[in-house]
Amino acid sequence: MDDSSKLSEVEVGITIAQSVQTQQVGMQQQQTIINPVKIIRSPYIPSALSLAISCVIIGLDQHVEHTFKIKIENNSTKELVFSSSQNQLNANPDTDNVVINADLKNIGFPNDGKYNAIIEVDHKSYSSAFYVFKADK
After folding, report:
1. How far is it, in rounded angstroms, from Cα 7 to Cα 79?
2. Rounded to whole angstroms, how far apart are CA atoms 71 and 10?
3. How confident is the model over 39-61, as a mean pLDDT?
4. Which of 2, 81, 92, 117 has its CB surrounded by the most CB atoms within 10 Å?
5. Three-state DSSP state, 3
6. What is the mean pLDDT of the chain?
7. Mind giving me the DSSP string for 23-71?
8. pTM (global) more than 0.70
9. Alpha carbon of residue 133 to chain centroid
10. What span, in angstroms and rounded, lies between the C-alpha atoms of 110 and 81?
11. Core vs surface per residue 31-50: b (16+ CB within 10 A) or e
């Protein structure tokens, strides 16, 4: 699986979902993404919402340690509504895809609008936008 070193840069895919479940299948763990979304509706704004962020990272040097941090920011105000601590990430040399899941509960969203899910890998940011809107009655 050393072909990933042929990639010229790190690439990251980010999915926002209702939940991510990890299941043991034989000797491997598999992730199931439940209800992926780009728009989250809530009956109340401001609101505390639960969601999952799933990130797939490729192109990491598999022979060194890496760091990552997950954040959610309001796109217009740049206010952080969630920020994890800096974490160590060891790329498994037997896999091409490094998967990081964050199951977040009761995250406060003070306003409706556009938000960015951000993962920082070795202090470089990758992001994906999603939206929080008030549900129609």
Report:
1. 34
2. 18
3. 95
4. 117
5. helix
6. 92
7. EEETTEEEEEEEEE-SEEEESSSSEEEEEEEEEEEE---TTSEEEEEEE
8. yes
9. 20
10. 8
11. eeeeeeeeebeeeeeebebe
